[in-house]
Amino acid sequence: xTEQSGGSVETAVRPRAAVLAERFPIHRVALxxxxxxxxxxxxxxxxxxxxxxxxxxxxxxxxxxxxxxxGSIYALIALGYSLVYGILLMINxxxxxxxxxxxFASYFVAQSLDSKGLLTRDPIPSLVLLFLTAILxxxxxxxxxxxxxxxxxxxAPRLVPLITAIGASLFLQYTFSGFFGSDAKGYPSVKALxxxxxxxxxxxxxxxxxxxxxxxxxxxxxxxxxARTRTGKAMRAVAEDKEIASLMGININRVVVTTFAIGGVxxxxxxxxxxxxxxxxxxxxxxxxxxxxxxAAVLGGIGSVSGxxxxxxxxxxxxxxxxxxxxxxxxVPATNQLRDVVAFTILVLxxxxxxxxxxxxxxxxxx
Amino acid sequence: xxxxxxxxxxxxxxxxxxxAIVYLALVGMVEKFEARHxxxxxxxxxxxxxxxxxxxxxxxxxxxxVESGQLVRPARGPAVTAGxxxxxxxxxxxxxxxxxxxxxxxxxxxNIFIAVSPKLLDIMTFGRGLAVGVVLWVVVxxxxxxxxxxxxxxxxxxxxxxxxxxxxxxMLALLQRIIPPLLYNLNLDSTWLYSTSFGGLxxxxxxxxxxxxxxxxxxxxxxxxxxxxxxxxxxxxxxRVFDVSRLLLLAVVLAVVPRLLGSALSEVLxxxxxxxxxxxxxxxxxxxxxxxxxxxxxxxxxxAYLTALFTGAHLVTSLGAxxxxxxxxxxxxxxxxxxxxxxxxxxxxxxxxxxxxLRGDYLAIVTLGFGEIARVLLTSSWLQxxxxxxxxxxxxxxxxxxxxxxxxxxPFYYLVLAFCALAVFVSVRLADSRVGRAWSAMREDELAAxxxxxxxxxxxxxxxxxxAAVGCLSGTLFAVQIGSLTPDSxxxxxxxxxxAIVVVGGMGSIRGVxxxxxxxxxxxxxxxxxxxxxLLVYGAALIVVMVLRPQGLIPxxxxxxxxxxxxxxxxxxxxxxxxxxxxxxxxxx
Lengths: 367, 589
Hints:
The complex is a heterodimer. Chain A is mainly α. Chain A has 15 helices and four strands. In chain A, the strands form two sheets. Chain A has a two-stranded antiparallel sheet. In chain A, strands 2-3 form a two-stranded antiparallel sheet. Among the domains of chain B are: 150 residues, no CATH class; 234 residues, no CATH class. The chains are: A mainly alpha, B mainly alpha.
């Protein structure tokens, strides 16, 4: 920004190389080069794949449903990042572990319900119990996290809480593996959720249907909460301006705790849905979904509910379809291994090109 | 008798201490550490771990408090009472938990919390059954809490030597695998100091060490000022001789260390060296330039894989045959190193260029993304022709001088030492150079630095390139050391370990990085029990250091002022809230 306005005045006196360097600073050249490369890769890759026609229509439809299913879970986790970021302008790096803790806690309940046969006999009360357990545990972990690791550093330089968040993430992972064992635990399957339904030609498994419906319901609930309730109004005020809000008599600490609690509730729900989908929990399961959800939050525009939903969906579908669409055509073997690369590349590209998100203004600095 | 405020804090500290004990038991540390004897069979690490929470609870409950701008210390009587209260509560919580666990049939708790074994319960009840155990917890807890509080009320000239003495004794007890072979190689008798049957210090040895280590600092507190003054007042020529001889002494000690320690411990030294290089590299990026890089493992991997590909290595194809990678050179190690450095610096630029305009926390996440991309690519079948995929590369050509290879721990130590010396030299010179000053200006205030004519683009890129160049050396050495690479060695945990080293030691401080590496890498290296809890402890250390001592153990002076300034520069209207925030923060620790 500054280069442009300063450069035009003195151009006549400067040597040409200097003028060129000023008009095209190295980082901008690098950005354009990256953009061109990426666009080229995406276009040629997809064109070749489609031209070769190696994947059937039904195959694509399965990928899309899978993507939406994953995306719903990402969206739920993303909301936790988004809400906290909106209020404290900090990345709660340990949010993935909040999600993990809920899934893990519900595992023990699910196991004992399963051993008594209740999971098959009374699926609905059992599922409700699973969700409640996960919500309770995730919420407590989130609140504890805020109290111990973040609140003492509310006024510290910005990188300081990020470092404690990384520490908290590691700490929670290894606490859980120390408490409950580091091996992956098989999550009991729910009979009522087996089978597939056909929705307009798209094959949707019942677990996927539950995931998508639950995610939509949670998001509508959250939107209403933020828009209609007194607490929601306080949250919006604090996100707008912490200092003024506190002058208006809003208890900042209470709003922050509420925000973390809501993030925990959503993460808990996401945890159970994730565990039901993949039938497995372990203490390190939160890390990668956490980063991807953060990507989704930034993708949609961090700080907004609809943004997290849209970002989650785009990311889910992109990482489900992306590797096949872009890489099969150019003969890259075992494209599913590169799922995470697609997600992380999206993360890098979004942060570099549109740090404000798709819905945002493109302005990186909110603070 | 004691003020309500003090009582409140004592209760709080006591309860937190109790939770800490239950945590340590549940996470499995107590049982694991029980096997490590510190002083004969009188004291082991597990018991020490159990004794720490009540001690700390008493100590922290009686922290001096800021009251209307003045530091208020509790008097001895109320302080000890408060310590007693917090100790009783700590012991009480532990006892309650024990009683609670005993309500369930044996094994029922263990189905969920795997650490709750009969042996753990035996340890926690001191082998005397529940009833006696509960009483002991409360009584011993009270005693320890009072002790912790009483320690607080000691005058500094007694307290300081005492803590040095205790710390030294503990350190020597923990170094039980290092010091006996050292003494043996020096032809000294160690049986009076270290117990041969248990591994820890002998009671006599412990007492001797404690007395000596307490007396020396006490003496230094009396006479130290005079000695220091004499050194500073030496004429410049003599001063130089003093400095040089100090450096020479250090060099000699460093040179003979692996001979004295033997092969197994030299391996630990080698590992410390590899991480030291990584820490020094990350210190340039995070400590000097203030750019939080969470994908530092990318440079570690770059250094390792490039070294392998430049000096020669094999891979296993998907059919199981041993083959050469599609790109391979057979350079000598020494010409390969500068090439690797150059390429790594270039990778640093490549990663740095697109993220220059990002704010600090986004930068951290983007670099984290790069680190993960690097790992996934290394594992993928796509690049298997070059990287060997999940099986990685093996038979990496060893570096050597005159026919002596470096793969053995002892020669490897010297190679690492040379590289570390180089990296330390570069770091020191950079810190005091124009570049270093530009970095610190940029770190403190980017806008102001730009206004002063510092090209932040240039210096950020330079920081990335320099950090990558130094960090890749650790990868190079890693490849030489183990001779085979798999992607498993290049996870995000490497980045976080490097970050923990820099943060715990003190960002921007070379001595800090050194101390951080020795603590975080060396301690788990010599004590196997720590290995399992290494990352747990790193995580906790990151939180504790940032909350209690953000400048790190051995702070960089300038950096410390910055961090304190932030505290001072809080908005005026927050002033009333500020003390509450600090108190809350301390209590949570």
